[in-house]
Amino acid sequence: MLIGETGELTDTWNERFRQLHEQFGIGWCFWPYKNLDSNSAVVSIQKPAGWDLIANAGSSDIRAFQPGSLPPREQALAILNAYLEAARFGNGRINDSYLNSLGLVAP
Q: What is the pTM (predicted TM-score) of this model?
């Protein structure tokens, strides 16, 4: 048996959940590896300035879509490029406490 895609709660919850699985020999896989501005991931990506403009556009109701509500193309491209730069492994922040809750140690 394998329990997967879990683990975005607190470090304490993660640790207890992991220990329970290990006690009963149940395989586990925690998720996610990277996340935006979160301590509940191995690596945290810094949210770029203007990210909320992209997030709001991506989560808006398509039936109520208004083209004028989108950021200009150049601005959107700059925000997305800043996100890609922040997502590079060397630019992320490793969350030691999250790794410790999984029984792992950051290199």
A: 0.74
Alpha-carbon distance of 56 to 70, in angstroms, equals 9
Among left, alpha and beta (phi > 0; psi -120 to 50; other), residue 101 is: alpha
Cis peptide preceding 32, ω within 30 of 0:
yes
Q: Exposure pattern of 34-66 as b/e (b: 16+ CB <10 Å)?
A: ebbebebbbbbbbebebbebbeeeeeeeeeeee
The vertex-54 CA angle with 5 and 9, nearest 5°, equals: 25
Summarize pLDDT for 57-74 with one digit per residue, the tens.
Answer: 877 777 777 777 778 999
Question: Which stretches does DSSP call E strand in 18-80?
Answer: 27-30, 34-36, 43-45
Residues 6+ apart with CB under 8 A from 101: 11, 12, 14, 15, 18
Quick check: 10 and 41 in contact, CB under 8 A? Answer: no
The first and second tokens of residue 70, run together, are: 């989108």
Computed over every residue of the chain, the mean pLDDT equals: 88
